[in-house]
Specification:
Blueprint (H helix, E strand, L loop, with lengths): L1 H67 L1
């Protein structure tokens, strides 16, 4: 019985000291990747908004040219 208790105690120590720490590291790495992805996508959103504004301005310029002609 004492041997089983020691084995269980070793397993508990391994879980607490190694596995939990490693899971925490993986989770932190995942959060960093998620933040980096959002930061990388931000310029893409800005480019899309600028493209929309350029199209609107092109339409306005086209209308002005038609009025002048």
């Amino acid at each position: 019985m004492q041997e089983v208790k020691q084995t269980v105690s070793k397993i508990d120590m391994t879980l607490e000291n190694e596995i939990r720490v490693n899971i925490q590291r993986v989770a932190e790495g995942h959060l960093d990747l998620s933040r980096n992805l959002h930061e990388a996508m931000r310029p893409s959103n800005e480019v899309e908004m600028l493209a929309i504004k350029v199209r609107m301005l092109e339409t306005d310029v086209k209308e002005l040219k038609e009025k002048i002609s």
